[in-house]
Amino acid sequence: MNELEIKQLWQATNEKLEESFLINRKNTEDITRISIHNFLGSMKPIKIFTLLVGILWVGIGVIALSGIYLNAFAEANKFFLFSATLQVLLTAIALLIYVYQLTKIYQVNISDPILQTQKKLAQLKISTLWATRILFLQLPVWTTFWWNETMLTDWNFLQWAITIMVTGSFTFVALWLFSNIKYENRNKNWFQLIFNGKEWTPLMKSMELLEQVNEYKTGTIEVNRRG
Amino acid sequence: MTKQEQQLFFQEIIEQHKAILFKVARTYCLNEEDRQDLLQEIMIQIWQSIYKYNDQHKISTWLYRISLNVAISFYRKNATRAGKYTVLKEQMPELPTEDKTENERQLNLLEQFISELKEIDKALMILYLEDKSHAEIAGILGMSVSNTGTKIGRIKDKLKTRFSQLKS
Questions:
Q1: What is the CATH number of the domain that holds B21?
Q2: pTM across the whole model
Q3: Are B70 and B108 members of one domain?
Q4: Which of A185, B57, B146, B156 has its CA 20 to 30 A from that of B100?
Q5: pLDDT computed for residue B86 by the predictor
Q6: Which of residues 2-61 of B touch A (CB under 8 A)?
Q7: Are residues B58 and B41 in the same domain?
Q8: A-chain residues near B91 (CB < 8 A)
Q9: Digit-coded pLDDT (tens) for A75-96
Q10: What ipTM was reported for this prediction?
Q11: CB contact (8 A) between residue B73 and residue A36
């Protein structure tokens, strides 16, 4: 079967099927009653909500911690203070990722060329990895909140050994995951184990798609001329 | 454009170019139910982008871009929209009885070949089978004309190999 015959087969079959494909006026009228919003509009409310909760959390944290730094630094438990500061700082960084994602959502235009749009969408989804990395980076902080000065004087070797081992391993795991959770490692077994599950499927698919876009990238140009 | 003009324009382009929507939905969704959902989603996105349309691009280019972008991103579909869907009517007609077996065999092979392609390759395949010029395909996909030629050449080779296997 030659090229022309294959094209004819495709076109003839579609013509036959199209004849029976009905879109009545009511269908299109129903659609025009749906209010106009961005292609990713449905993603915005949850992101905006998360952003607002995050701003509230960081805001309360900053006010509370500033009060301690300014008025009660000498009496404060320094371990708690530094742990809480680090936690608030990391949450603030995570908020910046949400701001970045919201900006990207507004930039996506569904009528732009395929490669351009799909790249933006895939990058948007993959930026979720950054939030995950930040989440893991917070791990050691949760093991140091309860530390206090009496530990320095009252604790024996075994207590110290266990505490340091726990915090040390949490720190190691957090730093390792922070530096290794990235697009380039998507095919590694440990990566697929962490991101295994239905909730991560769109993320993994986005990575596959970005790979396809990159394969096509050679020679990619901005197309703004009449198509 | 006023809202009423937008509504008329929308109905007009859907009626005139419904084949584009249909082919894209058929290529990306083998399951009937998913295909109906995809068709609705494509129409919703066309309606929601209609105020942005300008004659910088041919209407078919604009429609292919939206349809293919929605189809490729379909897995991100928002489930909450499900309630807004209306049902489209489609029946699968019988192929003519003469040379039905041969036609069906070849069509099955073509459909199987397309279904095995990656998402963006599928887009390229539809445009190639629709006999679009390299310049138009480049405009829809967003790549250079020369690169489009190379990619089409590769996909043609694969297709040729598949059909030659059928013969042997």
A1: 1.10.1740.10
A2: 0.78
A3: no
A4: B156
A5: 45
A6: 6-7, 10-11, 14-15, 18-19, 22-23, 26, 40, 43-45, 47-49, 51-53, 56-58, 61
A7: yes
A8: 20
A9: 999 999 999 999 999 999 988 8
A10: 0.82
A11: no
Note the pLDDT tens digit of each residue in B112-155: 888 889 899 999 999 999 999 999 999 999 999 999 999 999 98
Q: How many beta carbons lie within 10 A of that of residue B76, not counting itself?
A: 17
Amino acid making up residue B12? E
**Highest mean pLDDT out of A79-83, A127-131, B89-93, B162-166:** A79-83
Number of domains in chain B: 2
A214 pLDDT band, cuts 50/70/90, is confident
> Residue B102's domain is classified under what CATH number?
1.10.10.10
Q: Could you tell me if A224 lies within 8 Å of chain B, comparing CB atoms?
A: yes
CA distances from B112 to A10, A68, A98, A218 (A): 13, 67, 41, 28
Residues B85 and B125 in one domain: no
CA–CA distance from B130 to each of A89, A116, B150 (Å)? 54, 22, 18
Cα→Cα distances A140→A81, A133, A136, Å = 14, 13, 9
* Sequence letter at residue A146: W
Q: Please give the residue range of the domain that contains residue B109.
A: 93-168
| B1 & B75 share domain | yes
- B130 and B87 within one domain: no
